[in-house]
Specification:
The chain is of the alpha/beta class. The chain contains eight helices and twelve strands. Helix 1 (68-94) packs antiparallel against helix 3 (159-188), helix 2 (105-124) runs antiparallel to helix 3 and helix 7 runs antiparallel to helix 8 (299-323).
Length: 330
């Protein structure tokens, strides 16, 4: 419950306005009509978890946006671009179509290891070995090249060529990872904490906070709009019913604080005048409904008038709180 206290002197006027509630619906897909909303007023669909308002052009609009599809599309695009970039780098390293037994760095390395092993074996004892003994009868005596882009079937790749090809592959992998990280950072709006730097972790965090989001939504649904509150006040309280008069005998007007102050001032003036003129004590009246201009109001009369004004104000406020409209269903 919302309670507003208005303090005047030692007295409090308590206003119990209940809980503020917005226009709301529990029907999936339901949306408020423009005719049912004032500009800037809030309406909720509690099932769809959507917030509606009316803009300055009279259109009902939905606040907020679901970025799930955008994130999925950006992720797919980032993966496709990374794959395309990686493929282009690999094709660049290959320098074209390679033989099936030499189309990967692993196969080239294995071929080089075999050749180096054969060479080392031949170098152990060359004095008594013939070409046929070491298998050179079936091995072409080709040159060794450091190039990683040549397509020469009569030339061997050196260890430098293998190393260069390996380094290019490592650089291509690093570039692909850096590009993917940059795209991910753009999607996530910068560098998030480690616990939230993947889409899976973000989804898990949102799922964990479903109850908090539901609690906030439920709390918002209990609040009335400013427009509704002002409308209720305008229909329940007549501002002209608060009077500064100290001579009115109306049973519907509420005496203002200024009227009470004037009454106290006049009462004191009458008392002082009466004492100065040695007025008979019978001229001092405790009545609060008297309109006499000769009687002097007693302090009891002034206090009774003050209490009656406060009681009347409390009654009006209670009627106001009891009759306020706390949101509608659409």
């Amino acid at each position: 419950m919302s309670t507003v206290n208005s303090t005047s002197g030692a007295e409090n006027v308590a206003i119990d306005l209940g809980q503020i509630q917005f226009d709301r619906s529990i029907t999936s897909g339901a949306a408020p009509l423009a005719a049912d909303l004032e500009e800037g007023a809030i309406a909720l669909n509690l099932v769809d978890r959507k917030i509606f308002t009316k803009d300055h052009e009279g259109n009902v609009i939905t606040l907020g946006r679901d970025y799930t599809a955008d994130i999925a599309a950006a992720q797919a695009n980032a993966i496709a671009q990374a794959n395309t970039y990686t493929d282009s780098q690999i094709n660049g390293l290959k320098g074209g179509t390679l033989a099936a037994d030499l189309d990967t760095l692993l196969k080239i390395g294995q071929r080089l290891e075999t050749a180096e092993s054969n060479i080392a074996q031949a170098q152990q004892d060359t004095s008594n070995l013939t070409k046929a003994d070491v298998g050179l009868g079936n091995v072409e005596n080709y040159g060794i090249s450091d190039s990683v882009v040549e397509q020469n079937s009569t030339q061997y790749a050196s260890s430098m060529a293998a190393y260069t090809a390996h380094q290019r592959a490592v650089d291509a992998e690093a570039a692909a990872i850096a590009y993917a990280d940059a795209v991910k950072s753009d999607i996530l709006g910068g560098a998030p904490p480690a616990a939230l730097d993947t889409l899976q972790e973000l989804a898990a965090a949102l799922t964990d906070n479903d109850s908090d989001i539901a609690a906030i939504t439920s709390s918002l649904a209990t609040k009335a709009s400013i427009t509704q509150l002002n409308d209720g006040l305008d229909t329940k309280v007549d501002k002209t019913s608060i009077s500064d008069s100290i001579t009115s005998n109306s049973s519907t007007n509420v005496a203002s604080s200024n009227a009470i102050l004037l009454a106290l001032t006049d009462a004191k003036a009458y008392a002082d005048a009466g004492l100065a003129l040695k007025v008979d004590k019978s001229a001092i009246s405790s009545a609060i409904d008297s309109v006499s201009e000769t009687n002097v109001a007693s302090s009891k009369a002034v206090n009774d008038a003050r209490l009656q004004a406060i009681s009347h104000a409390n009654g009006l406020v209670a009627d106001l709180a009891a009759n306020l409209d706390y949101g509608r269903s659409f």
